[in-house]
Specification:
heterotrimer; B: mainly alpha; C: Four Helix Bundle (Hemerythrin (Met), subunit A); 74% helix; elongated
Chain lengths: 539, 109, 223
């Protein structure tokens, strides 16, 4: 049983000031984190709605529910919303914003006003994209390939492009803020190798945000210019190269997937350490692996283009590099496993989600190797194999990690425990629903079902129905935490400063924390995961 | 703050150097160096940029971290150029062997 | 860091920082990171330029000859001069000379505006000649289609650059006002330094744009 105190602290960041303006004009990183939490959850459900329509259509072989045109818009908007408005911001903007200053003993991020501006930029980009959705959406696929997006599509490419362009700056500014904060605002004694791995993960993520996002910004801008003003850079009629678009697009969009997974890996390190009551095995290897993933992630993008007409020699280079980028991820999985081995396992919901992460991310990662092999990729490119691969990483990996983090730090953020029984149940439902949704898709892809098609041959129906059924279960699995998290805000058991007896500076403060986090700046004298010295207060 | 203060003369000297380099780059552009015009122009531009970075932007007197950040930026810019061009420049290298497959008249869909 | 002066309640010190020095260092670090994003932002355009220059050397030559080397050269001198005055402005702020800071900033702004006016003349001329890419584009020659790509990149790159200059002029105006209001001192001049870094970056972009756009084939490799 978890020890809790009976009373919330008298004053904390939530009740220090009331009123809508105190939230909309806040400079408190914790409040900004909650603004993001609400926004990205809303986008998650919008993206999920598109997914529901997709899976409903695909329950039958014929294209009988939506028109082909509408279906194209559905998968496009699903991708655009989920990637740019949910996954990319998710952990950094919510958990990262909330926890980073606390984990390093600081009162706030380096640039609190810039942090708030990031959120407003995110909202602006989101509103513009929402408007584009409402007036008809886009049908180019979230990848906006030219020349369809520049010349042939008659949908709202420019509006969506502008929305994505603007939101990119939110990502850049968050990354900038994090890097400066981590470099300049660590508490006395907090050397780099005493930092929690969550911080290392966000540092690596921020590097990618800084280096990669500007390239997709200029690329999307060029697409918009080409459509609006016929400034033809990718226009084959002028001798332009549509594949150049792909190079520029994927230069960001591949590292972007590491923006989506690295923070989740940071959560996993924290949860694994806490719930096995052990230092993370090979701490420095995990830390360096985060950096390695960020760096190597920039060297592999053209594995998305093996069938686009690129040079075979370049394909070989990119294939080799793509194999090597799997290594640091594997190092992490081994180290987490070694951490769990002979640890004092405390089976709570965060750890359940982390188990889900480790297993599903491994499957997703291994199937990535299938795709990195150029010869094999030729057969499964643009099939459901790819779709399954990236959903294993993004949903089975990133979102599981996000759920683990939400559960782990919920008591810190709100001073209340979520109901553990329901959380374990939700983890199970999500796991079952997820696998039922996406494992059949590996088989479908292998058998040749193309992606982005709304109709398919009869023989694929059984697997598609399984997938659609799984999606329903998965949806329920995500709704359950929505309900109990909200419930817990009022009725959850009061958590106290450190219900998990976890290490980390954030757990030394009250729950919820004060606006300034710490009354006096802490001094750090030991490493991040000294669990051996820690007594677990369990009643 | 103990930041380095450059003497004004340094700035004027760098300015003069930049103007000279500009004149050179314009002058050299009118001389036919064949394929070397482009690399020469680029080298002069890189030299000018380096002077601005080291002296006007104080990088010569800045922390290692600043130099690392700048270096990282240029490194990944180079990655963008080199790896993208690795595709384009090697496209013609492998040619398919002459067609040895004959399609039967009634084959295909 | 044992010799820092305690700046309790210095008006510029923000609550999340312990010392003004920490704040100054953070601000500068932040600006450098922002400049890295700008390097990558322009980088995409340079990548497109690089590819098409390799593919279409003749069209690049023809397009480049359409640009006015005198105006381009003058603008280069103007911008390099403005970098000098900007560096002097930062130095004046560093050494606690507010009047000189304001003066040098105003000269920098004036030079920046000069650049933009000259650019405006160049653009106007392009409009007159129907060299603006799009439906109204007209160009004589066998490589007209690819010259249109060159000019697309010309407008995209110089246009983006000019936009950054406009923002820079606005930024410097704000900083000049702040300097006039004596907001800076040798202990706190980060905004001036940051603006300087931004301005120099914009200069560096032009240092590359000038030869890449204006000097492609002045020696007439292609007759």
């Amino acid at each position: 049983m978890i020890t809790t105190t009976s009373l919330l602290p008298r004053e904390h960041y939530l009740n220090i000031r009331y009123g809508i303006l105190s939230w909309l004009l806040t400079k408190d990183h914790k409040r900004i984190a909650l603004l993001y939490l609400i926004s990205i959850t809303a986008f998650f459900f919008l993206g999920g709605l598109f997914a529901v329509l997709i899976r409903l259509e695909l329950a039958t072989p014929a294209g009988d529910m939506l028109s082909a045109d509408t279906y194209n818009r559905m998968f496009t908007m699903h991708g655009v919303v989920m990637v740019f408005f949910f996954l990319i911001p998710s952990i950094p903007a919510t958990l990262g914003n909330f926890l980073l200053p606390m984990m390093i003993g600081a009162k706030d991020l380096a640039f609190p006003k810039l942090n708030l501006l990031s959120w407003y930029i995110f909202i602006l980009g989101g509103v513009i994209t929402l408007w584009a959705v409402v007036v008809g959406g886009v049908d180019t696929g979230w990848t906006f390939y030219t020349p369809y997006s520049t010349a042939a599509s008659n949908t709202n490419v420019v509006a969506t492009g502008v929305g994505v362009f603007i939101t990119g700056f939110s990502s850049i500014l968050t990354g900038l803020n994090f890097i400066v904060t981590i470099h300049r605002m660590r508490a006395p004694g907090l050397t780099w190798f005493r930092l929690p791995l969550f911080v290392w993960a966000h540092y690596a993520t921020s590097l990618i945000q800084i280096l990669g996002t500007p390239v997709i910004a200029i690329t999307v801008l060029l697409v918009a210019l080409e459509r609006a003003f016929h400034i033809g850079i990718f226009d084959p009629a002028l001798g332009g190269d549509p594949v150049l678009f792909q190079h520029l697009f994927w230069f960001y969009s591949h590292p972007a997937v590491y923006i989506m997974i690295l923070p989740s890996m940071g959560v996993v390190s924290e949860v694994v350490a806490c719930f096995s009551r052990k230092n993370v095995f090979g701490y420095s290897f995990v830390a360096f692996s985060s950096l390695a993933i960020a760096v190597f992630g920039f060297l592999v993008w053209a594995h998305h283009m093996f069938v686009a007409g690129m040079s075979v020699y370049a394909a070989m280079i990119f294939s080799f590099l793509s194999f090597s980028v799997a290594i640091p991820s594997a190092v992490k999985v081994f180290n987490w496993t070694a951490t769990l081995y002979r640890g004092a396992i405390w089976l709570q919901a965060p750890l359940l989600f982390v188990f889900g992460f480790i297993g599903l991310f491994t499957i997703g990662g291994l199937t990535g190797l299938f795709l990195a092999a150029a010869g094999l990729d030729v057969h499964v490119h643009d099939t459901y194999f790819v779709v399954a691969h990236f959903h294993y990483i993004m949903v089975g990996g990133a979102i599981m990690g996000y759920m683990a983090g939400l559960h782990f730090w919920w008591p810190k953020m709100f001073g209340r425990m979520y109901p553990e029984g329901w959380a374990k149940f939700a983890a199970l439902v999500v796991f079952v629903g997820f696998n039922l949704t996406f494992f059949p898709q590996f088989i479908l892809g292998y058998l040749g079902m193309p992606r982005r098609y709304y109709a398919y041959p009869e023989e694929f129906q059984v697997l598609n129905v399984m997938s659609s059924a799984g999606a329903t279960i998965l949806g329920v699995g995500y709704l359950i935490p929505m309900v109990y998290f909200l419930w817990s805000l009022r009725y959850g058991r009061v958590a106290g400063p450190n219900p998990w007896s976890a290490t980390g500076l954030e757990w030394t403060t009250q729950s919820p924390p004060l606006t300034e986090n710490f009354t006096t700046t802490p001094t750090v004298t030991e490493g991040a995961y000294e669990y051996s010295k820690r007594e677990m207060k369990v009643v | 703050m103990s930041a380095h203060v450059s003497p004004r003369s340094t700035y004027f000297a760098i300015f003069a150097a930049l103007m000279v380099l500009t004149a050179i780059t314009i002058g050299v552009a009118f001389v036919n160096l064949g394929p070397f015009n482009f690399p020469v122009a680029l080298s002069i531009a890189i030299t000018k940029a380096t002077l601005v970075i080291l002296f006007f932007m104080h990088v010569k007197y800045s922390s290692r971290l600043t130099k690392l950040i700048l270096g990282t930026g240029f490194f990944f810019l180079t990655v963008l150029f080199v790896l993208t061009l690795s595709d384009y420049l090697s496209r013609g290298w492998m040619t398919a062997p002459p067609a040895a497959v004959q399609t039967a008249p009634e084959a295909g869909r | 860091m044992s010799n820092h002066v305690a700046h309790v309640h210095h008006p510029a010190l923000q609550h999340q920082f312990e010392t003004l020095e920490q704040q100054q260092e953070s601000a500068t670090l932040g600006m450098w990171l922002f400049l890295v994003t700008e390097i990558m932002f322009f980088g995409g355009l340079f990548m497109a330029y690089l590819l098409y220059r390799i593919w279409y050397p003749q069209a690049w030559a023809e397009g480049s000859l359409e640009l006015d080397i005198v105006l381009g050269g003058v603008n280069t001198a103007v911008l390099i001069g403005s970098s000098l005055t900007m560096a002097l402005a930062v130095r004046a702020a560093q050494t606690g000379a507010p009047r000189a800071t304001v003066a040098w900033l105003l000269i920098t702004i004036a030079l920046g505006l000069t650049f933009l006016v000259i650019k405006g003349f160049e653009y106007a001329h392009k409009f007159e000649m129907h060299h603006v890419p799009g439906p109204g584009f007209q160009f004589e020659g066998p490589h007209a289609r690819q010259v249109e790509i060159f000019l697309s990149l010309y407008f995209a790159m110089t246009g983006l650059h000019a936009l950054h200059m406009v923002i820079g002029v606005g930024l410097l105006s704000v900083i000049a006002w702040m300097a006039h209001k004596r907001r800076f001192s040798p202990e706190w001049y980060a905004p001036v330094e940051m603006s300087g870094l931004y301005w120099h970056f914009v200069d560096i972009v032009w240092i590359f744009l000038f030869p890449l756009l204006y000097l492609v084939d002045r020696a007439h490799h292609f007759a």
